[in-house]
Design a protein that fits this description.
By secondary structure, the chain is α+β, with helices and mostly antiparallel strands. The protein contains 20 helices and 22 strands.
Length: 685
């Protein structure tokens, strides 16, 4: 029996050895899975034991959410686990578990789980079930992981798609797309609605694909243009942007502007093309009306110019005889004073008629687009002061500082057209701002040249103009490469500016240092004192002539001192008014050259009468009168308009605007005294 005991002992030893090997193998597997669980940052592995109501968690998911070992006992309870689920998702989780019990679940669920420090992440769980012999779920095991970024991407995509859908829905344009993957074109309903069709119209569903149906309705002339534009776009030779006619359901031609963009794959083959169709029929009809109206206007202007030219010729012919014989009579020494005076009247009337003919022809030139100028003595510094506030918003936007250096030439005068010279300054200053650097500077400098000219320079701290391009500076429509930048422009501003300056007898020049900046300057002859004296002498002669022709002036019916405010920006006109009213000691004259200052003086000094010019820089006479009439302090002060606008419609406009009297230049002294008597005469008279 000894041998039997040895056999039994040997078998037990073998069994223990086999069991130990299996236990060691199982331990290795367990350790391997534990290493996997510990290394799975952001992933969790769950085993839900329904019989013992226990959830066994492994992995780094809960640590990823900020929870520690002390929290896991609470989390592992199925009843307490729901506290960590977002309140809006708890019903969804319960329904998911119920579906798994019934065997109708998908095994996948996305819901929100709370982080320890607040806030939620989106988590996805994927599970499988183990059922007992009776088919009941005993274990539910699976993996849970963070899908927040994916969910956020999906939500952003949904928001973007909804936004694009709203934009397309609010747009009046049709949308189309061609795809190499799906083949053929896809048209939105709006494309067909532009033509008066419905997408389901039988006319569009007769065995022809939609793109062919669209192409067949194009105007024959425009279809070829459409094909060429598309072919060039496919070859990369230009954008797909084409206007064409297409026949609508009612048989009328509609204008469509088609635009699109082609995308290519890595091999350079066309992949997808998307675009829009815009109905521009009304725009084309409006353009056609404008073109026809322009043609009619040009014909009318041409006919008027031809008529005026013919009338000028017909009137100048008899005038030549009238003035010629009048001059012959002046040479006759046998005429008595009365006869000589009569001949003088004939000659004066003939010259006046000749001047009227010239004025009418000048008007025709302006309407034909030929520039005209009103040269007068003016102060450039004042014009620059008016330009700077207009340029200030642009300078602030571009972070550019504007400085003015007049070097005691602020009172200098030149002879020029104020409107045109102001246009010149605005153009030069705006260019200096636009083509400057950020935090740059524009310096406006006044100087006097050796030839006695006033030079106004506009210098910037921009990038300058390359030397090789400077010779093209005054070439029309040449922007010297700036057309490729963000600064808008036409390339004709400097050309027009130079023409304006030259037609006013001045000169426009420039210098530029690449990388440092450019300087543009305007040069005009200074207005000399002798020229002012000649002007005043001519004005005095005119006044004397008027007085002589009219005989005695009307009696001024003013006994007590009256204060008169004269608002006039032209210095010679100011001096003329001073000389005229100096003949009447009871009339005290105050002269101001700006409308705003004149309004201030009217409010503070309450003059008895205001004489107001119409054409002034800044606020004109009509705007100044409107302010005076709305202010209770000045609304009852009588106002006389004194203007060179002497057409009948100008006088009617002036009286309708509220002037008490409207007088025209040249000044008629008798009419001025009559107006003063009418408005501020003393009752004693």
């Amino acid at each position: 029996m000894g041998w039997l005991s040895e056999v039994i002992t040997s078998r037990k030893r073998q069994q223990r050895s086999s069991l130990g090997a299996r236990l060691r193998a199982m331990q290795e597997v367990r350790q391997r899975y534990e290493r996997i669980f510990r290394g799975s940052h952001g992933y969790g592995f769950v085993d839900w034991d329904f019989k013992n109501r226990k959830m066994d968690w492994n992995g780094g998911f809960w640590a990823y959410l900020g929870y520690g070992e002390t929290d896991m006992e609470h989390i592992s309870s199925p009843d307490q686990f729901m506290e960590y689920v977002h309140s809006d998702d708890r019903a969804k989780v319960n329904n998911f578990v119920l579906g798994e019990f019934k065997g109708v679940g998908s095994g996948e669920l996305v819901f929100r789980i709370r982080k320890k420090k607040g806030g939620y992440i989106w988590a996805e769980v994927r599970v499988d079930n183990v059922r007992d012999s009776q088919g009941r779920v005993s274990f539910m095991s699976g993996v849970v992981f963070d899908v927040t970024k994916q969910k956020q991407t999906e939500q952003a995509l949904l928001i973007s798609e909804a936004r694009h859908a709203r934009i397309i829905q609010s747009s009046n344009d049709g949308i189309w797309e061609w795809s190499a993957d799906h083949g053929g074109f896809q048209f939105s309903n709006r494309c067909w609605e532009l033509l008066g069709y419905d997408q389901h119209d039988d006319e569009l569903n007769q065995g022809v694909d939609k793109v062919q149906a669209w192409r067949d309705r194009m105007h024959p002339e425009d279809g070829e243009l459409f094909d060429r534009t598309l072919e060039k776009h496919i070859k990369g030779e230009g954008p797909f942007d084409v206007e064409y006619r297409i026949k609508g359901k009612n048989g009328n031609w509609r204008w469509i502007r088609g635009r699109g963009q082609l995308a290519f794959d890595a091999a350079g083959q066309p992949l997808r093309m998307s675009g829009t169709n815009m109905d521009i029929t009304q725009l084309k009809q409006a353009e056609e009306k404008v073109v026809k109206a322009k043609e009619l206007a040009e014909k009318a202007n041409k006919a008027k110019s031809e008529f005026l030219s013919s009338m000028s010729h017909e009137l100048r012919t008899p005038l030549n005889a009238i003035l010629g014989f009048a001059q012959l009579f002046e040479l006759d020494k046998n005429l008595n004073p009365a006869q000589r005076e009569n001949i003088g009247e004939i000659e004066k009337a003939g010259k006046h008629l000749l001047e009227l003919i010239g004025d009418v022809l000048d008007l025709a030139k302006i309407e034909a687009g030929k520039m005209d100028f009103e040269l007068e003595q003016l102060n450039p510094m004042r014009l620059v002061d008016e330009c700077i506030p207009l340029m200030r918003p642009l300078a602030v936007k571009n972070r550019v500082e504007i400085n003015v250096h007049n070097f005691e030439l602020g009172n200098a005068s030149v002879r020029a057209d104020s409107v045109r010279l102001k246009q010149v300054f605005i153009n030069l200053i705006s260019n200096a701002i636009k083509y400057n650097r950020k935090d740059g500077r524009v310096d406006i400098v006044f100087s006097e040249t050796e030839e006695g000219h006033l030079r106004v320079s506009v210098q910037d701290t921009g990038f300058g103009i390359p030397l090789k391009q400077q010779k093209y500076m005054f070439q029309p429509f040449n922007r010297l490469g700036a057309e490729r930048g963000e600064i808008e422009g036409s390339g004709v501003g400097l050309v027009i500016t130079r023409q304006l300056v030259e037609q006013m007898g001045g000169e426009l020049g420039f210098s530029s240092d690449e990388g440092k900046g450019s300087k543009f300057w305007v040069q005009l002859p200074l207005y000399s004192e002798s020229a002012i004296g000649e002007y005043l002498g001519e004005a005095a002669d005119v006044a004397t002539a008027v007085q002589t022709e009219q005989g005695e002036l009307p009696t001024l019916r003013v006994a007590e001192r009256k204060n008169i405010l004269y608002i006039e920006d032209n210095p010679p006109n100011q001096r003329l008014m001073r000389q005229v009213l100096s003949r009447f000691p009871v009339l005290h004259l105050e002269v101001v050259e700006e409308a705003l200052r004149g309004i201030f003086m009217a409010r503070t000094q309450h003059p008895d009468l205001i004489i107001l010019d119409i054409n002034m820089p800044g606020i004109n006479g009509y705007e100044a009168l409107n302010v005076l009439r709305k202010d209770p302090a000045t609304q009852k002060i009588p106002v006389i308009a004194l203007s060179a606008n002497a057409m009948s419609h100008d006088i009617e406009k002036g009286m309708a605007s509220g002037f008490d009297v409207y007088l025209t230049k040249p000044l008629n002294l008798a009419l001025l005294i009559d107006a003063i008597n009418e408005l501020i005469a003393d009752e004693a008279f």
